[in-house]
Design a protein that fits this description.
This protein is of the alpha+beta class. The chain contains twelve helices and 26 strands. The strands form seven sheets. It has a seven-stranded mixed sheet, with helices on one face. Bound molecules: calcium ion.
Length: 441
């Protein structure tokens, strides 16, 4: 293991191998990852699990077999009722204890007899949302996205004056967040044709995806008690992928003066596994230096430790497969490649800012990072960017073109962390397929 990386222990050892068939070669879920989630098998009650290779381990089963003790046992006992919120609320120490014990149980062959019967092939399981999400907030921390989108509306000044001072966000809608794989019905909405034509109510014609990180809150804070930036990290339970599906034509008409509403709240997709801060420890990097002339963050958003290791080197991808490509047996085609390092604000800054006015965060709350685009061609995290607002279509294998999403189109978000000297890990799937709109009534 590399020297100088904080938060490392034996669970990160790249030489550690699992006895679970195929797990050590698995591109996303080797024994160094161990993300938490909620799954069910053949219609039975949803329960807590951990991903290992192509299998899911039943955590209650591990506990019932007497293989856990202390904080690790307490963490699993808290994960009841098909939601991990109460487990995440326990904070970092029980989560780490459980990770260390699971890493041992899944790598030491002496435990294979007792754990083997508790493994379920992931292909036979249904994954659920990992938490009952109380509140959802969508940030806007991807500075290239904010600049690209701003340029389409305000060529002379793409970024508004507050952008480099405030982690901008809006309060989203938690009731319509769905796990990966749920279909996405094209929304109906009110939109305004150009010129003097009156508004119409019709199916969205400019349906888009947004490539975002999801951030899960573990430990909450009391109403009226801000979270100091230096303690913000302790409130983050883990990460997922998040697709903030967006109806651009509805958005363009409704967003002034109060921001996104129906253009965003028809459905949001998240990947089902919570990848822990522990699993991501080897992939922490310094927050990018702010360009010369940018303002320094105010004191309540400034922390040397956060600047030194508060960003993530995480490869992010968007892939698209049309209905015709699926029928032809074609693989999804990558339409964007980006990286979580392109965030202007760290996740700790988002947490500290959110609570700075006294707002209470609660276990199982979810943040979206904002669309994470890169600076280069081919790194746009939305179609609004990659097609320049629909002006320049994406050309797909087989010759089809897309300016925005058609019915039958399937969008996949993926995240991978790779670094020499460490096992590579991934986030699993964040997928949705577009269904036709309901008839207008
Ligand atoms: Ca968004």
């Amino acid at each position: 293991m590399s020297a100088g990386v904080e938060g490392l222990d034996e669970t990160h050892d790249p030489a550690r191998r699992s006895w679970v068939p195929g797990a050590s070669e698995h591109p996303e879920f080797p024994v160094q990852n161990l993300p938490f989630g909620v799954f069910s098998v053949r219609g039975r009650q949803p329960r807590a699990g951990v991903a290992i290779g192509e299998f899911i381990v039943d955590l209650r089963g591990v506990s019932a077999a007497g293989l856990l003790s202390g904080e690790a046992e307490a963490a699993v006992e808290a994960a009841g009722g098909g939601s991990l919120s109460e487990m995440l609320e326990l904070g970092a120490a029980p989560r780490r204890a459980l990770r260390r014990r699971l890493s041992e149980l899944l790598s030491d062959n002496a435990f294979s007899d007792r754990i083997g019967p508790l493994l379920h092939p992931a292909a036979e399981c249904t994954l659920h949302l990992p938490c009952a999400i109380g509140d959802y907030t969508d940030f806007y921390a991807g500075i290239h996205h904010a600049t690209n989108v701003g340029r389409q509306f305000r060529p002379e000044g793409p970024l508004l004056p507050n952008y480099k001072h405030i982690p901008i966000a809006y309060h989203g809608r938690s009731s319509s967040i769905r796990p990966s794989g749920m279909p996405v019905r094209r929304p109906l909405g009110q939109m305004k044709p150009p010129d003097n034509a009156p508004p119409v109510f019709a199916p969205c014609r400019r349906l888009d995806y947004e490539l975002e990180l999801g951030i899960w809150i573990g430990v909450g804070n009391e109403l009226g008690e801000p979270i100091p930036i230096g303690q913000a990290e302790g409130h983050i339970a883990g990460y997922s992928l998040l697709n903030d599906w967006s109806a651009r034509d509805i958005q363009a008409w409704e967003y002034r003066p109060l921001g996104p509403f129906l253009a965003k709240n028809f459905l949001t997709t998240v990947s089902c596994w919570i990848v822990t801060p522990e699993a991501l420890a080897p992939f922490r990097i310094p927050q990018a230096q702010r360009p010369e002339g940018d303002p320094a963050p105010l004191a309540y958003l400034s922390d040397a430790e956060d600047q030194a290791r508060g960003a993530l080197d995480l490869h992010l991808e968007v892939l698209l497969r049309t209905g015709r490509m699926r029928a032809q047996g074609r693989l999804p085609h990558r339409v964007a490649l980006s990286n979580a390092r392109h965030m202007y604000w760290t996740v700790a800054q988002m947490v500290a800012h959110h609570a700075s006015g006294g707002c209470n965060l609660r276990p199982g709350d979810l943040f979206g990072s904002g669309t994470i685009s890169g600076p280069d061609e081919g790194s746009g995290g939305s179609m609004l960017e990659s097609t320049l607002g629909g002006a320049r279509p994406i050309v797909l294998p087989g010759g089809e073109e897309r300016r925005f999403l058609d019915d039958g189109d399937e969008v996949f978000l993926r995240a991978y962390a790779r670094r020499p000297g460490f096992a590579s890990i991934g986030f699993g799937e964040c997928r949705g397929v577009i269904e036709a709109a309901r008839a207008v009534r």
